[in-house]
Each structure stands twice: as C-alpha cells, then as structure tokens.
Amino acid sequence: MSPRSAAPEAAQSYSSRLGAHRKTGEAAELRKTLKPLMEKRRRARINESLNQLKTLILPLIGKDSSRYSKLEKADILEMTVQFLKEIPAPSAAPARDDRAALLH
C-alpha cells in the first residue's frame, strides 16, 4: 500500500467519524429538546390516572366527591391502598358451574 493510497482512506475514516459525531450531537440536541415534552406527557398521564382513581375510589369508600375536590396525590394513593387492604382475600376459585352462573 503506497502512502498516497493510505491518505484518502484515513481522510475518509476521519470524515465518517466526524459525521458520526455530528449525528450523535444532533441526537443529543434532539433528546434535550424532547425531554421536557416527554416529562410533560408523563406528568399528564400520572395526573389523569390519579383523577380517575379519585373518581373511582371516593364512592367506594363512602366519601362525597364534591367535598373532596382538592385532594393531594398522596392522599388519593393512601385511600386506595387502605381500601384495597380492607377488601377480603378471595376464597378458593368457584366451581365451574358457579363461574358459569356468575357470567349469566
């Protein structure tokens, strides 16, 4: 291999590494841009699920929804955990005939 033929290969290798670095840099910039949007969507999903949980759990525990319009997230979760702890453990699976009766 002559020195002249090695130079274009080295230059090509360098430029491909530089291109990869640019792509990595662009990807990092894209992640920086999208991160706040992803976090906003994640928080919105959490808040929506907590609101649904609140509307489901309050009637089950005998609380008036209108009196509990402003509940902290931790309170909603604590009420749900307490409610689930108080549900009696399911007994053995019902017999096949019993399950059919439950479905109809």
TrEMBL record:
Coiled coil: none annotated. Residues 1-27 are annotated as: Disordered. It comes from Chrysemys picta bellii. PROSITE patterns: BHLH. Transmembrane segments: none annotated. One of its GO terms (molecular function) is DNA binding. This is BHLH domain-containing protein. The keyword Zinc does not apply. Residues 30-87 form the BHLH domain. InterPro entries: bHLH_dom (IPR011598), HES_HEY (IPR050370), HLH_DNA-bd_sf (IPR036638). Keywords: DNA-binding, Nucleus, Repressor, Transcription, Transcription regulation. SMART domains: HLH. Its main location: nucleus. GO terms for cellular component: nucleus. It is found in: Nucleus. Pfam families: HLH.
